[in-house]
Amino acid sequence: MDTNNTNNINSLENPIDLENDPNILFTELNVKLESLITFLTKNDKDNQIFVDEIIDNKVTDLLIASKELENYFISQQSKYSAEKNKIQLKQEIYKVKKEIENKDRLIERYKNKVKEWKYHFEPLYQSQNHILHSTAQGLSGIENQFSPVFTPMPNTPSILQNLSQAKPSPSLGLGSTIL
């Protein structure tokens, strides 16, 4: 019984490094299971008095070892989740970076097109502008044939006023009106 207590104290004093090796946890769990099975199958008369107490200790040891293993798996799962989130974030950043690069290339391409169009159409525009201004100066004494013809706007309030006046309706009788 003293060796069991010493083993329990040693296992509690030497915490298992969960970061390094899960095999240690599996080995410890396996040893404790073997110890429990050996104890249960052993038929020693001297130990029959303490059977309940020893079984409780063995089961407690087994539960502690399984809890340590469970904690290890939980820590691994949280690490995996954190790594997964980092990878997803990196993928999203990469995707946005590619979109920006594509848009920058598109902007550069259209910027070059605008320059090309400007070099092509600017001389035409300047020559047409020069012709237009020289023609307008030559025709300053004559009525400008390029000026727009003035079209009077209808008097909108008087039209609305005429439409809103009451008029007799032949179908409704002499005194009726339609607005």
Q: If you compute it from the alpha carbons, what radius of gyration comes out, rounded to the nearest whole angstrom? A: 49 Å
Unreliable stretches covering 5 or more consecutive residues: 1-13
**Number of β-strand runs:** 2
The helix count comes to 4
Helices and strands, in order, run as: HHHHEE
Please identify the structural class as seen in this structure.
Answer: mainly alpha
- How far apart the termini lie comes to 113 Å
Total discrete domains: 1
Largest sheet: 2 strands, antiparallel
Widest β-sheet, arrangement of strands: 1-2
The chain-level mean pLDDT equals: 73
Beta-strand residue fraction: under 5%
Overall 3D form: rod-shaped
Helix content: over 70%
Structure overview:
- The protein is mostly helical.
- The chain has one domain (2-128).
- The protein has helices spanning 2-13, 22-41, 51-138, 156-164; strands at 167-168, 177-178.
- A two-stranded antiparallel ribbon has the order 1-2.
- A hairpin with an 8-residue loop joins β1 (167-168) and β2 (177-178).
- α2 packs antiparallel against α3.
- The radius of gyration is 49 Å and the shape is rod-shaped.
- The N and C termini lie far apart (113 Å).
- Residues 81-119 form a coiled coil.
- Component of the Mediator complex.
- One of its GO terms (biological process) is transcription by RNA polymerase II.
